Amino acid sequence: MTRIANSKATLAALLLALLGPSNQAEGQDQAPPNIVVFLADDLGWGDLACYGNPVMKTPNLDRFASQGVRFTQCYAACGVCSPSRSAILTGRTPYRNGVFRWISEGHEVHLRTSEVTSAELLKGRGYQTCHVGKWHLNGLFNSPEQPQPDAHGFDHWLATQNNADPSHKDPTNFVRNGDPVGPMEGFSAPLVVGEAIDWLRDARDGDAPFYLQVWTHEPHLPIESDPRFMAPYEEYTDQPGVLQHHGNVSQLDHAFGLLMEELDRQGLSDSTLVLFTSDNGPEGTGEGDPDDPGSQRDRTRGSTGGLRGRKRDDFEGGIRVPGIARWPGRIEPGTVSDVPVIGSDIFATVCEVADVPLPDDRTIDGASMVPAFSGEPIERSVPMYWRTHISSPDSRVAMREGDWKVVGNVDLTEFLLFNLADDPEETTDLSDRHPDRSREMAERLVRLNASVLGDGPDWWKKEASR
C-alpha cells in the first residue's frame, strides 16, 4: 500500500513537471482582461458607416467593428442619458437603481452608494479604475452632499456634471479628482481621450489590470466641431448644421481611434475587452431647425437608420443604438450578432470576464452578453424593459421578449404589440391579430413595471404625472 502511494506520488510529480509550463501558459491566458467601456452621447443607431450610413466618415469605428462583433440589436437601457449610464454601472434598470430621469444641475436624484457598481467590484478583484468624460449621475456635482465618481469605485476621474460648457470647444467645466480644471484648449472627445491616454501611460500600475470608462459628450448638444473634421463634408457647406453634426461624429471617431492606437502602442490590445455603445438614440427630428440655420438646434442631425421614434421614446429609434465589442482571441473578427443586448448587460459582462460573482442581495436586470459575442442567445431572468419618464404618453414603457415587443402608454391602459423580426420599424401594431400574446405580454409588463417601481427610491413619484 505504501509502495503504491509512493508510486502515485512519483507519477504525479512527473506529470506536474511535464505539464507545468503548459499549465502556466494556460493560467496566463486566463488572467483577467483589461476592460474599456466607451460611451457616445446621443449617437443614433444609423449614425456610423458600419451601420449603413452612406455619408458619415467613421473609419476608426468601422475598422474596430471589423475586428470584433457588431450588434444589430443593441439597446440603451433608457431613452435618455443619466438612466442609461446608471444601468451600465449597476446592471439594474434605472427606476430600480433610482436614477429614473436625466439629472439637471442641483437635482436630488443621484446614483446612491447603496448601489454596487462594476468599478467597485473590479477594484476588489485588483483592477485599477478610471473614469473620463461626462458623468451625469448626480445633480450636486463635485459636492460633498452627493457621491462623486470616487465614491463609486474610480481611482482617477476627469468629468463634467452633464454637457461640456460652453460647448465641445475649449470647455471650462471639467473637474479632475475633485479639483476644477479651468479652461481647456481643444475639443471635448480628444481632450477626454487624452486624459485616458495620460492615465494609461503615467498613472496606472502596469502590473494590474485596468477598467477604463470613457464617456464622451459628442454628438450631444451644444455641438462644436473642429474644422478638420467638418472638411470631409464640404458638400454640405450651405447646411452648417449638417456640417457641425457630421463633423462631430467624425470628431468622436477620431478620438476613439487615438485610444485604440494607444492600446496598440502599449501592447495592450490583445489583453483588453473594448465595448463601444451609445446612451440613447439621436436628439431632435433629424431635420435640424430650418428657421435658424447653423444654430445649436439646427445641429441635431442624428440618424435612427429608419427606426421609429428618437431620443426620449421607447420606440426603437429612441433606444436601439450602435454596439460593438472587440476581444482578441475571444471574439471572432468580423462577427455580426443579431442577439438582442442592452446597456445593463455590460455590468454582468464585465463581472463574468473578470471572474467576479454578481451581487446576490439585489435584482440584477442585465445578463452577460458573452454568449452573444459569438451569436449565441442570452438566457435572461428579467426581460428587457424600458421606462422613460419624459417620453411621449403613448410610448412610456416597453418590454421585449424574443422577437416580440409590447409598448405601453403612460398609465399602462393601452398597449401596442410589434414583431421586431418582421417589422423593426414598428409600423404595424399586431395586438388585434395576436390578442392572446398581446394580453399576456401586457400583463407581464404591468407586473414587471410594478416590481421595478417598488424596488428603488420613490423620487419618481414627484414627477409621475408628467
Strand content: 15-25%
The CATH superfamily of the largest domain appears as Alkaline Phosphatase, subunit A
Low-pLDDT windows of residues: 1-28
Distance between the termini: 81 Å
Q: What is the CATH first-level class name of the largest domain?
A: Alpha Beta
Mean pLDDT reading? 93
Report the sheet with the most strands, covering strand number, pairing sense and barrel closure: 11 strands, mixed
User: How many domain modules?
Assistant: 2
CATH topology of the largest domain: Alkaline Phosphatase, subunit A
Just name the CATH architecture of the largest domain: 3-Layer(aba) Sandwich
Q: What overall form do the CA principal axes indicate?
A: globular
Q: Which structural class should the secondary elements be placed in?
A: alpha/beta
| Topology as a string of helices (H) and strands (E) | HEHEHHHEEEEHEHHEHEEEHEEEEH
GO molecular function: arylsulfatase activity; metal ion binding
EC number: 3.1.6.1
Protein name: Arylsulfatase
Region (Disordered): 274-319
Give a topology summary.
Layout (H helix, E strand, L loop, with lengths): L1 H28 L4 E7 L18 H8 L2 E7 L5 H10 L3 H4 L20 H7 L3 E7 L21 E5 L14 E2 L2 E2 L7 H16 L6 E6 L11 H4 L9 H26 L6 E7 L37 H4 E7 L8 E3 L3 E2 L2 H9 L30 E4 L9 E5 L2 E5 L6 E5 L15 H21 L11
Parallel strand pairs: 1-7, 1-8, 2-10, 2-11, 3-4, 3-7
Antiparallel strand pairs: 2-9, 4-5, 5-6, 8-9, 12-13, 13-14, 14-15
Helix pairs in contact: 6-8
